[in-house]
Amino acid sequence: MNTPNQLRSAADEQEDLTIARRESEAGNVVTVDFGPGVEVSLDLLGELVIVVAGDRQFEFEMPDEATELSTNNGMLVIE
């Protein structure tokens, strides 16, 4: 699964935002860490994903391969 362009671009510009990808037989997981102490919220409007991380907002289309989105301790998890 590819990381949404908006998140990949933000990670290229901001040192505190990191992206990790894991591939296994069970599927692919993309984890986006927005940095220490950042509160993350997630909203879905149809296929549009809206992530608010601290004072930053990211909007992107749900990846075709994604089956689940969640947040955990300041991280966005796309499975």
Task: Give a verbal description of the structure.
The protein contains 1 helix and 7 strands, in the order H-E-E-E-E-E-E-E. It has 79 residues and is mainly β. 11% of the residues lie in helices and 51% in strands. The mean pLDDT is 92. The strands form 2 sheets. The chain has a 4-stranded antiparallel sheet with strand order 1-2-7-6, with helices on one face. It has one domain: Immunoglobulin-like.
How does CATH name the architecture? Sandwich
| Major sheet details | 4 strands, antiparallel
Q: How many strand segments?
A: 7
State mean pLDDT (0 to 100 scale): 92
If strands are numbered along the chain, what order do they take across the biggest sheet? 1-2-7-6
CATH C-level class is: Mainly Beta
Uncertain parts:
none
Computed Rg: 12 Å
Stated plainly, the CATH topology is called: Immunoglobulin-like
Question: How would you name the oligomeric state of the polypeptide chains in this document?
Answer: single chain
